[in-house]
Amino acid sequence: MLSSYCVARSRVVTVAPSRPTARLEQFSRHLEPKPFLELNTPFSTERSARFVDEQGNVIRPKKQPAPQKIVEETKPQKVASDLKPHKIFEDIKNLSETPERPRKMSSQPEHPALLIPGPIEFDDAVLQAMGHFSESHVGQPFVNVFGDVLANLRKLFQTTDPASQPFVISGSGTLGWDQVAANLSEPGDEVLVLHTGYFADSFADCFETYGVKATQLKAPIGERPSLEEVEAALKEKKYKLLTVTHVDTSTGVLSEIQALSELVHRVSPDTLVVVDGVCSVGSEEIRFDDWKLDVVLTASQKGIGCPAGLSILMVSGRAIETFKARKTRPTSYFGSWKNWLPIMQNYEAKKPSYFATPSPQLVRALDTSLKQILSKPVEEYFAAHKAASQKVKKAVADLGLKQLASKPENQANGMTAIYLPEGIAPPQVLPSLVKKGVIFAGGLHKEIATKYIRFGHMGVSVTDPKRPDITKAIESLKESLGEVGYKN
């Protein structure tokens, strides 16, 4: 078993179990019979607490009014003397607002629309879920919610294979790289990293940190490696993994995942297909089972529409078996599936379990967001992003501007990377956009960072018809360019 190995300077040393067997058995009632991986830190389910005062009398909680009731009772009431003529006309105007341009985009405090490639704007209900009262991370109410989240992630990723496994761990998309490198590769393994921008460099660096040899197959800026190039690389040597960034946040380049996976399974069937979907899950279609993917990793703050702080993965049964067949212990502790796999299996079965403390508030926010996305066929969610993307890209062309991804088949649906006119730099445009109530991102690719900006169009900004975010952003971009002398 993995727990019996410890790697140190090329030696394999047998170590004693970290807990007495009797103690593990004492708390094993929440685990499946004879699990493949034992929990590092057993726990006991909390008892219902009864609070007493200094005299030993039971303190019973006072019944609290519902939150909505509190708002209604404490909301200041207007009187006739407060209603000035100009205020009356303003109220009448607000009553006649159209769905295309409401007075406020939500009940949130007024703020510029955040239209970067993540974090994105969040729905009110998602943010309200973040305000949930504190609760035990092993209490049954939270465990039930976590179980729902894992089940709904299967629906979003479109997998019904019981051998596949979703993971939700406190962290960011970068933690997904760590999990892949630490669990699916071992020091000395070869991996092929397809390069479409900045984030392939980072993923390759992550592998090198774990002693894995990463070979990058690079494409020119705005392009992606061709299938012919990938096939030739796979035939040159045996690779344990192939990784591809579905949408590179630095360039807006979209990779074609289905055809790529078919190629890998045909040419190098033992190679695992790993998709970095941090900037694609939610805004791009992903069919985990149909496309025979092995890992798709993402984060909570982009197309899924939840605040940052969660690393989310879907892992195939084939990848899990590869992990179990490791010759060495995983080279990360926090990111080790030795620790997390039984936790996720228990949570999905709605059984309390513990290795490291999750964020109940973030998980509840993710639960709310996933239920919103899945309230309609998931294809409608993808279609909304595609429609918004086409609107943005037409507007970019109408302004006489070019995208980093020049070919339509290379263009992402959740973001657009836009070259600025010659002689105009991001610092001349971005502050003006903020004044107009819109936030774009500057360039990220180190070779051309001063030449372009990035427009993110994901989540409620494109799925909520009452939000004017996209239309306002397009108008603001045109105005801001005009202010610095650009004439189309």
From TrEMBL:
One of its GO terms (molecular function) is alanine-glyoxylate transaminase activity. One of its GO terms (biological process) is glycine biosynthetic process, by transamination of glyoxylate. It is an enzyme of class 2 (transferase). Transmembrane segments: none annotated. Its EC number is 2.6.1.44. It comes from the Eukaryota. The keyword Nuclease does not apply. Residues 129-445 form the Aminotransferase class V domain. Its cofactor is pyridoxal 5'-phosphate. It holds the Pfam family Aminotran_5. GO terms for cellular component: peroxisome. InterPro entries: Aminotrans_V_dom (IPR000192), Aminotrans_V_PyrdxlP_BS (IPR020578), PyrdxlP-dep_Trfase (IPR015424), PyrdxlP-dep_Trfase_major (IPR015421), PyrdxlP-dep_Trfase_small (IPR015422). Keywords: Aminotransferase, Pyridoxal phosphate, Transferase. Belongs to the class-V pyridoxal-phosphate-dependent aminotransferase family. This is alanine--glyoxylate transaminase. It comes from Massarina eburnea CBS 473.64. The lineage of its organism: Eukaryota, Fungi, Dikarya, Ascomycota, Pezizomycotina.
